[in-house]
Amino acid sequence: MTSQPAHAAVESVVRMESARLIAGLARMTGDVGLAEELAQDAVVAALEQWPTAGVPRNAGAWLMTVAKRRAVDLFRRTELLRSKYAVIGRELQAAGEGVEVDFDGAFSQDIDDDLLRLVFITCHPVLSPPARVALTLRMLGGLSTAEIARAYLVPEPTIAQRIVRAKKTLAQADVGFAAPGPDERADRLSAVLEVLYLIFNEGYSATAGSDWMRPELCADAVRLARMLAALMPVEAEVHGLLALLELQSSRAAARVRPSGEPILLLEQNRARWDRLLINRGLAALARSVELGGAEGFYSLQAAIAACHARAVRAEDTDWARIARLYEVLARVRPSPVIELNRAVAVSMAAGPQAGLELVDALAADPALRRYHLLPAVQGDLLTKLGRFSEAQAAFRRAAELTANARERELSLARAEQALAEQAVAEQAVATQILGRQAQAGPGAG
Hints:
By secondary structure, the protein is mainly alpha-helical. The protein has helices at residues 3-29, 32-53, 59-78, 82-95, 103-122, 129-139, 145-152, 156-172, 182-204, 215-231, 236-249, 275-290, 297-310, 319-332, 336-350, 352-362, 373-384, 388-401, 405-440, and strands at residues 208-209, 403-404. It is 73% helix and 1% strand. Strands 1-2 form a two-stranded parallel sheet. Helix 11 (236-249) runs antiparallel to helix 12.
């Protein structure tokens, strides 16, 4: 195997397995920072060995086994945590000397609990809310500091500093890996919901890379949201988030062509939307409303997703209701991104000019200065208004700002389409002029 495919295999496995790997190691060592270091050591070992030995059939188990052995070496070397050394040593002995351990069979009983526990640990109140979210996204979601920075529209160094400080704070506070009790869960719930929401969003529309979606992140977020709803059944916003994730997940199969190209919402084949997930989402939304959460941040977004889910055809969508829901959402949690989404809904309900006026007003907001969806929306509305030259420039600006290859290709394709439509419009005008001149006769002019 050449070095390049091996590195690609490592990257793929790390994306899929990093959260489980870190969560399992954190449970065993009781130290989140150490767990991440051990996981990184295992990745380095993979980079050293896979190019010549080949990628193991069960790569996730290989990483876990190597990380455990590194932990044993560390504990033996430092003569600390003898009890944990014994536990890990027994597990290794049971697993055998080979690295082809059945990861799912050997460790799956605690995987989901470990993941959820890791979310609550990294959302510990000893950390500031921004630090909790940044650390959890980094560890559980496998997001890079650049991806987290884009999600929050803040500079990358700021996120990097938050993560470093958060790890130090957890270590200094000697935070263990024990599951928090009911009162502690309630205190951390807001941060936990936000983390699951952002992990899902990264999976649903990846901020960087060559893929439009990262399905493994969506799956993890949905699974954890379902567990959280079972753990905290009377929390309205838990059900609101679950409803949102189920409804958004229902579109996954229709969002990407076999070639990997993205398919925008209004162009999707709605027959491919998953009705089971839609029904689950609608049921969770009804439960949230029943618990008094109709105007919760996640429940409102779920209500918007429900408007799309209930429309058999794109033209059946109740855009006026969606615009009203976004208006309420903007009051609940003011955000320029929410206002941008509201502008899109207004354009669909009242026409592109009404939407463009709102979007142009948002262009001055510093938080959106490098947000690629702002010029993308501008380009779409300018195209509908027949302002093709301006639309082309807007789409090219959107392509420059995004770090996702698929999204960049889409924006550039829409820029070319705007250029083509401009040529068609100019040809139509020229034809009309020639037609009028012909009707006027040779003496005209």
